[in-house]
């Protein structure tokens, strides 16, 4: 019987490795419960293909008198519950677990559309537009049906505009919402900004129309590097994606997103995208917009920076306390350390 138990545990691991190897982008929380000669598979997965393979392979088990597949495919919801949500606050923290004391793993900005996988009290496990999964408190979002959520994304009530830092003001001049970088609002025929919670207001600050974004922010490495200067001096914040605080991969992701190129959330995920390039002697062959990756811990990429041309880089780092520039060929102790832990460079566009 011990061998049979080991076989089913190996089965679960094989399905996880094939369909949901990264818990940041896929849920596969499956446990095996053994009672005598009966085995039950319990838990959740966000991956339908994982559930299908698990179901097929459990049906082939012959060493057990009874085999029960009770794994539920997410989203988990009653028929009357909605599984789409829009972020209604300026920034919604995404936590590693359903508790305020949990670690922030990322953020979702106003107007982002989320898929709600499951609920635990007032906490919602959500998948963001970039595929990243985290727990968001219900106070930061408005639940919608799929039609309303898609309508918001497409600008059914007007034109979609992207924030580069703006405020939405009420008729009395009071701030209704402070819009972070990459927040989405809809502007109606009168030029008023419609927020995802239904409120409207006047705009103070910089917005760009989504439809014309490529004109001012093309998917070009030099243009991305030029935009990065706007982030100079922003403090470092683990899991951050806004000018209120940002981490290394959040900065790179936010910049490329504005320029119409989607990147994964974390530096190790980003390090597997694009095309590898040779940096050349003293990093002189790097182009503006190329990404440099580093291993602060052995065996795993943990940091990313962007070249602004050759060895000159901009990045959000603890070593600088925020967003700052460094020279990969420089003599400062921190710059020597960056050279020591450098892994490789990749070109995104």
TrEMBL record:
Question: What's an example Gene Ontology biological process for this entry?
Answer: proteolysis
Drop me one GO molecular function for this one: cysteine-type peptidase activity
Which InterPro entries does the record match to this protein? Answer: NLP_P60_dom, Papain-like_cys_pep_sf, Peptidase_C40, SH3-like_bac-type
Q: List the keywords (alphabetical).
A: Hydrolase, Protease, Thiol protease
Record SUPFAM superfamilies: Cysteine proteinases
Domain of life of the source: Bacteria
Pfam families per the record?
Answer: NLPC_P60, SH3_3
Residue ranges occupied by any NlpC/P60 domain in the UniProt entry? 218-349
Keyword Ion transport assigned to the entry: answer is no
The Swiss-Prot or TrEMBL record describes its family as follows: Belongs to the peptidase C40 family.
Give the protein's recorded name. Answer: NlpC/P60 domain-containing protein
């Amino acid at each position: 019987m011990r061998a049979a138990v080991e076989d089913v545990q190996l089965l679960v691991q094989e399905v996880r490795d094939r369909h949901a190897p990264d818990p940041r982008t896929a849920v596969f929380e499956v446990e095996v419960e053994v009672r005598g000669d009966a085995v039950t598979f319990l838990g959740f997965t966000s991956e339908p293909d994982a559930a299908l393979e698990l179901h097929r392979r459990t049906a082939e088990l012959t060493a057990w008198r009874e085999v029960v597949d009770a794994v539920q495919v997410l989203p988990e919801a009653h028929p009357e519950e909605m599984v789409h949500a829009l972020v209604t606050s300026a920034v919604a923290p995404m936590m590693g677990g359903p508790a305020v004391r949990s670690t922030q793993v990322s953020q979702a900005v106003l107007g982002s559309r989320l898929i709600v996988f499951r609920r635990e009290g007032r906490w919602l496990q959500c998948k963001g537009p970039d595929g990243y999964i985290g727990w968001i408190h219900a106070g930061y979002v408005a639940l919608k049906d799929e039609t309303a959520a898609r309508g918001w994304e497409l600008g059914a009530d007007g034109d979609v505009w992207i924030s580069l830092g703006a405020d939405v003001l009420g008729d009395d001049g009071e701030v209704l919402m402070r819009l972070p970088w990459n927040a989405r609002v809809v502007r109606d025929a009168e030029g008023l900004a419609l927020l995802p919670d239904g409120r409207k207001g006047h705009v103070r600050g910089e917005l760009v129309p989504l439809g014309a974004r490529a004109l001012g922010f093309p998917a070009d490495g030099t243009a991305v590097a030029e935009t990065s200067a706007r982030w100079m001096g922003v403090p470092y914040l683990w899991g951050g994606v806004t000018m209120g605080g940002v981490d290394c991969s959040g900065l790179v992701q936010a910049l490329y997103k504005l320029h119409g190129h989607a990147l994964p959330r974390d530096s190790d995920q980003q390090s597997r995208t694009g095309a590898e390039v040779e940096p050349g002697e003293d990093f002189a062959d790097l182009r503006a917009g190329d990404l440099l990756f580093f291993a602060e811990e052995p065996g795993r990429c943990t940091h990313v920076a962007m070249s602004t041309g050759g060895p000159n880089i901009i990045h959000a780092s603890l070593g600088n306390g925020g967003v700052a520039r460094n020279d990969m060929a420089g003599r400062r102790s921190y710059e020597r350390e960056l050279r020591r832990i450098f892994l490789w460079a990749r070109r995104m566009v």
